[in-house]
Design brief:
alpha+beta; 10 helices; binds fe (ii) ion; binds FE2/S2 (inorganic) cluster; 17 strands; dioxygenase activity; single chain; Rieske Iron-sulfur Protein; 26% helix; 7-stranded antiparallel beta sheet; 27% strand; Naphthalene 1,2-dioxygenase Alpha Subunit, Chain A, domain 1; 4-stranded antiparallel beta sheet; oxidoreductase
Length: 387
C-alpha cells in the first residue's frame, strides 16, 4: 500500500522524536526500525548531538595509540577538535582549538613536546599551557601565563579512552563493570595498536553502527567474504545491559580454526576451545564498536559529522606477543588489506541505504531476530532523547 507522506514535516526534529517515542520498546518480536527521517533530518541530528553526544561518554581511542611520553593524536568529536596526548602526568584530552583565532593546533598523530599553531605560531606545551605568543607584548592585560587550552573530562576503562562534555555524567567504569570478565578475557588493557584506519562514511552514524552490529547482512553483502565462515543465520544477540548490546558470531559448524585466526598472530592466552570458535560484536552506547576475536580486536569511534556524513576511527589491537614477531609488519599489512575489502562492501550498501532512506515513501521497516541490536540502539536513543 502506497501512501504519500503528506502528513509529515520532513525536517522537524521534534515530530520525528515524537513518532520515535511512540514506538514500542518492550517486545523484540515486534521490533521495527526508527523512522527513516531520523537518518536525514538536520534538526533531529542536532537533537542527537545535544541529548546524546554532548551528554554521554564517547570512545575516542586506545591507550596504546599514545604509549610513549608526548605521543598524541587528534580527532573531531561532535564538532569539537580534540587533542589526546600523554604527558608526564598521564593521559590528557584538550580542546585542539587555538586560543587566538581558533585554528586547530595539532594535526594527525605523532610525538611532540609542544604544539605550534600553524596560523601565527602561538605555542602550547603538553599540559595545554600557552608557552609562546609572538608580538603580543603591546596587548594590554594579556598574560599568557593565564592561558590554557580547555581540558575535556576523560576516563580510561580497560585501556579504552572515553571523553564526555557533560560535567555531571556518572562515571563510566561502574556502568561497564559487568563486562569486566569479557574485557579481561581479551586482555583489552594490555593490547597494542597494530594499525588505525580513519575514513569518511557518506551515511548516517546510526547506519554505521547498525550494520556493524548485525550479521543478517552477511548472506547478501559479504556472501563471498564473511558469510562462508560466519553465516549470518548462526549469529545471535546474547546480552544487553544499560550501556551495551552484544552480537555473538560463531564460526560455521566444522569450520577450521584457520578461518577465524589470522596467520602470523598469536591467539590470546587463556581462551577455551569454545571461545576460540566465535567472535563477538559489542556496542558500547552510543559510539563505541568493538569486535572481539580470538587473536585480535578492533575498537572504533563512530563520529557523527552531519545527518549523512560520519567519520570512522578504527583501532586494531593485537597481543604484545603478536606485535613482537619478526613478520608482524607483513601480518599487519595483510590484515589491513582484509579489513579494507570488508569495509568497501559495507560502505557501498550503507551509501545505498542512505539514498533509499531519503525517499518520501520510506517507512519504518520490520526487523529480524538477527538484528535485535539495531532495535537496542533505537531503544537506547528513545530513552536518552526522552530525557
Ligand atoms: S590562530 Fe593560532 S596563533 Fe593565531
Ligand atoms: Fe558488514
Amino acid at each position: 500500500m502506497y501512501r504519500e507522506k503528506i502528513d509529515v514535516v520532513f525536517d522537524d526534529g521534534d515530530s520525528i522524536l515524537q513518532r520515535m517515542l511512540e514506538q514500542q520498546r518492550h517486545d523484540a518480536s515486534r521490533a521495527e526500525t526508527l523512522p527513516p527521517e531520523a537518518y536525514n533530518s538536520d534538526s533531529f541530528f542536532r537533537l542527537e548531538e545535544d541529548k546524546v553526544f554532548r551528554q554521554d561518554w564517547l570512545f575516542v581511542g586506545h591507550e596504546s595509540q599514545i604509549a610513549n611520553l608526548n605521543d598524541f593524536f587528534t580527532l573531531d568529536v561532535v564538532g569539537e577538535p580534540l587533542l589526546i596526548l600523554r604527558n608526564d602526568a598521564g593521559i590528557a584530552v584538550f580542546s585542539n582549538v587555538c586560543l587566538h583565532r581558533w585554528a586547530p593546533i595539532a594535526h594527525g598523530s605523532g610525538n611532540s613536546r609542544s604544539f605550534i599553531c600553524p596560523f601565527h605560531n602561538w605555542t602550547y606545551n603538553t599540559h595545554g599551557k600557552l608557552s609562546g605568543a609572538p608580538s603580543m607584548n603591546q596587548a594590554q592585560d594579556f598574560d599568557r601565563q593565564q592561558c590554557s587550552l580547555p581540558k575535556i573530562r576523560h576516563e580510561v576503562v580497560f585501556g579504552m579512552i572515553f571523553v564526555t562534555f557533560n560535567a555531571d555524567a556518572q562515571p563510566l567504569a561502574p556502568r561497564l563493570a559487568p563486562l569486566t570478565e569479557r574485557f579481561q578475557r581479551y586482555h583489552v588493557a594490555d593490547l597494542v595498536t597494530a594499525y588505525t584506519l580513519d575514513y569518511d562514511c557518506p551515511y548516517n552514524w546510526k547506519m554505521a553502527i547498525e550494520t556493524f552490529m548485525e550479521c543478517y547482512h552477511h548472506a547478501a553483502v559479504h556472501r563471498t567474504t564473511l558469510e562462508d565462515s560466519f553465516p549470518g543465520r548462526l549469529s545471535s544477540i546474547i546480552d544487553e545491559g544499560p550501556g551495551w548490546t552484544i552480537c555473538h558470531q560463531p564460526l560455521r559448524k566444522n569450520g577450521e580454526l584457520s578461518e577465524i585466526l589470522t596467520a602470523g598472530l598469536e591467539p590470546f592466552s587463556g581462551l577455551s576451545d569454545e571461545q576460540m570458535r566465535f567472535s563477538e560484536l559489542l556496542l558500547l552506547f552510543p559510539n563505541c564498536l568493538i569486535s572481539l576475536n580470538p587473536d585480535r580486536l578492533s575498537i572504533s569511534a563512530i563520529l557523527p559529522v552531519s545527518p549523512h556524513a560520519t567519520r570512522w576511527h578504527r583501532v586494531v589491537l593485537v597481543s604484545q606477543a603478536s606485535a613482537a614477531r619478526e613478520d608482524f609488519p607483513q601480518t599487519a599489512a595483510t590484515m589491513k588489506q582484509g579489513s579494507l575489502a570488508i569495509i568497501d562492501e559495507d560502505q557501498w550498501i550503507n551509501a545505498e541505504q542512505q539514498r533509499g532512506s531519503r525517499s518520501r515513501l520510506a517507512r519504518p521497516g520490520r526487523l529480524s531476530h538477527l538484528e535485535t541490536t539495531v532495535w537496542h540502539l533505537a531503544n537506547y536513543l528513545k530513552i536518552r532523547m526522552a530525557e
